[in-house]
Structure formats: structure tokens, C-alpha cells
Amino acid sequence: MDRLEIRDSVQSDHAAIESLYREAFPGEDLLPLVRELLQDAAIAISLVGTTDSRIAGHAIFTICGVAGSGVKAALLGPLAVAPTCQRQGIGSAIVRAGLRRLENADVSLVCVLGDPAYYGRLGFVPESLVEPPFRLPADWHGAWQSQHLGDSSTPCAGKLSVPPQWLHPALWAP
Ligand SMILES: CC(C)(COP(=O)(O)OP(=O)(O)OC[C@H]1O[C@@H](n2cnc3c(N)ncnc32)[C@H](O)[C@@H]1OP(=O)(O)O)[C@@H](O)C(=O)NCCC(=O)NCCS
Q1: What is the distance between the alpha carbons of residues 10 and 101, in angstroms, rounded to a whole number?
Q2: Distance from the CA of 91 to the center of ligand 1, in angstroms?
Q3: Nearest atom in ligand 1 to 25's CA
Q4: How far, in Å, is the centroid of ligand 1 from the Cα of 68?
Q5: Ligand 1 close to Cβ of residue 91 (< 6 A)
Q6: I want to staple 9 with a disulfide (CB 3.0 to 4.6 A). Which of 46, 65, 100, 147 is the partner?
Q7: What is the tens place of the pLDDT at every residue in 77-136?
Q8: Rg for the chain (alpha carbons), in Å?
Q9: Are the C-beta atoms of residues 52 and 69 closer than 8 Å to each other?
Q10: DSSP 3-state assignment of 174?
Q11: C-alpha to C-alpha distance for 51 and 45, rounded to whole angstroms
């Protein structure tokens, strides 16, 4: 693999990011969510991984809260790596870079809804105290995970409060 560089996305990356999601998620339309999040730099950290100046991977980290607490949290997703570039460590590297950014921004909890076989390797563990914005199907519960950043191991509980872009039940159901 050519050298991987990870940086914030810019407006001129958006078409390539959209192509990436069409390739990585052929059966799932995440583009409306991705487009909405990309429009709101105040709440979304959007990172691209490039090899040879081409976008090979992308992830968004949305800044959130936990209702009833002062905890600064984030939600990871979506995450996509181009099919021809998968299993080369690109997805993991982008996630780790995002976690470092969030820690530097005093975010203390990062949640994700995804395959524990993948996110467990990146330090995520099942989350039972902080609830997702919508009730998940029973067999998805292991998919709701989190990780504490920095020295913030103090447990917090409550519903993750997400911005409107994430308030669509379809994003939280099969
Ligand atoms: C899931 C995804 C983001 C992983 O990115 P990646 O750059 O390929 O992953 P990495 O190279 O960092 O890690 C690869 C390891 O994760 C595992 N892995 C990859 N995709 C996985 C998946 N969907 N579920 C579980 N484990 C997975 C592999 O076993 C691999 O380990 P191995 O090569 O030792 O067997 C990428 O495969 C992808 O975009 N897939 C399609 C979209 C998708 O399912 N996204 C899920 C996130 S919402």
C-alpha cells in the first residue's frame, strides 16, 4: 500500500466520498446522512484516508451529549473503506486518528453501532448505561458499543443526545 495520509475532508472531496459509500455499501443508502453531516462542520469531524492522493477511506465522528449529564460524547459512523483497499489497516487507522482528535477536544465517550468483531479490536466494548437514541432490535444489542477516552473512566448513564441528522429511526433499525 502507498503511504496512508489522514486529514480532514474538504468540500472538493465530497464527490469522491459519495462514490466511496456507493462502492462500500452497495445495498444501503447512507448518502443522505453523509451529505447532511458533511454540511455541518460544527458537529461532525470528517476524516479521509488517502493513498497516492486518492480517497481510500472515510469516517465521521458526530459530537453528541449524554442527556442529564455534562459529558461530551461522540458517535462514530459511518465508516467506509473502498473495497479494493480493505483489510490493509486503513479503517483502523482512520478510527484511531479520530479518537485522538476527540480526546484532544475533551470528548470523553465515543459510541458506535457496528460489528463488535471489528470495533472490539479498536477498543470498543458493549455499552449498557448510555442508550442509543432509538430502541435497537433485540439481536443488535451487542452492536451498541463505546469507549472512554483519556482518564474519563467514570461511568455515565442516559440517552445519547444526537443532532437532528441522526434522528431518523431508519438509521437505527435493520
Ligand atoms: C468495515 C471496514 C470499514 C473495515 O475497514 P478496513 O480498512 O477494511 O479494516 P482494517 O484493515 O482496519 O481491519 C481489517 C480487519 O478487520 C476485520 N474486518 C474487516 N471488515 C470487517 C467487518 N465488516 N466485520 C468484522 N471484521 C471485519 C478483518 O477481519 C480484518 O482483520 P484481518 O485482516 O486480520 O482478518 C471496511 O471493510 C468497509 O468499509 N466495509 C464495508 C462497509 C461496512 O461494512 N462498514 C461497517 C462500518 S459502519
Answers
A1: 17
A2: 7
A3: 42
A4: 34
A5: yes
A6: 46
A7: 999 999 999 999 999 999 999 999 999 999 999 999 999 999 999 999 999 999 999 999
A8: 15
A9: no
A10: coil
A11: 20
